[in-house]
Amino acid sequence: xxxxxxxxxxxxxxxxxxxxxxxxxxxxxxxxxxxxxxxxxxxxxxxxxxxxxxxxxxxxxxxxxxxxxxxxxxxxxxxxx
Length: 81
Fold this sequence. Notes:
Layout lengths: L2 H33 L18 H22 L6
């Protein structure tokens, strides 16, 4: 297996992991919205979800996209030579 194949495989692994984490975050957010207003906490206050939400998911998606682009740029041959 060549170096390019190794980098490509690693890039694909990172992309898959990013997709899985994003999906887990969406599922956790969905569960959090369904459980709001229940239990001893005040409605809308879920201590497990502090610092999470759509903005955090968006930031995570942007970060994974940025990493994917950087990895792709490293793998692409430089045609300007």
